[in-house]
Design a protein that fits this description.
Structural class: mainly beta
Number of helices: 1
Radius of gyration: 29 Å
Strand order of the largest sheet: 5-12-11-7-8
Order of helices and strands: EEEEEEEEEEEEH
Oligomer: single chain
Length: 191
């Protein structure tokens, strides 16, 4: 075999004096190559000197990608409920698959499974997302990038304030429960 433009390396040599190797015979091979795209070629030569080879490209990626939120900045006050979020993502192998973003209230940030669903943004290395918030107050914008082999970057958080009040957690929970108070009973009498 050979990797990239390197020299041919003998991986296994069959000795006909020792008999045929078992059908499931193989040898482990460790090769130290850097992350990135590499060309590999494997050549097989039989006892009669006939050969065949196969070439393929592999991408080695052992580092997770990274993501940045460039705008808005940490603790920015944004004077509108709809605005554009911009950022960048990098991967040493250059194989960013997607960037995702979500929006949480500050009290959701520490949860292991917060309510905010991840949404894909437009772009990869340079990305943006137009957000139209329904409510003002304090928000946490989170972003992450995913490379082509599925490695996920660390989640980056930026805290921002939008015009309006931040509803408290209890108010938001009660909002969904309005009209379902079982202690209220309305009786009607038909005559």
């Amino acid at each position: 075999y050979k990797i990239d433009d390197g020299d041919w390396v003998e991986y296994f040599k069959y000795d006909p004096n020792q008999g045929a190797p078992p059908k499931d015979h193989y040898q482990d091979m460790e090769v130290d190559i850097p992350d990135g795209q590499h060309g590999m070629e494997l050549m097989i030569i039989d006892i009669g000197g006939h050969d065949t080879s196969v070439s393929y490209t592999v991408i080695l990626d052992t580092e997770e990608p990274s993501v940045q939120i460039n705008e808005p900045s940490e603790n920015d006050f944004i004077d509108s409920l709809d605005f554009n979020i911009q950022g960048s993502a990098e991967d040493d192998s250059g194989q960013i698959d997607r960037v995702e973003i979500r929006f949480l209230r500050p009290w959701e940030e520490g949860n292991t499974d917060p309510e905010g669903m991840w949404m894909s943004v437009e772009g990869k290395k340079d990305w943006n997302f137009d957000w139209k918030s329904q409510d003002g107050g304090q928000w946490v914008i989170q972003a992450r990038s995913v490379d082509k082999i599925g490695q996920i970057s660390e989640v980056l958080s930026v805290h921002v304030s939008l015009p309006g009040e931040t509803p408290n957690q209890e108010d938001l929970q009660n909002e969904g429960e309005e009209g379902s108070d079982s202690s209220e009973l309305i009786l009607g009498i038909a005559v």
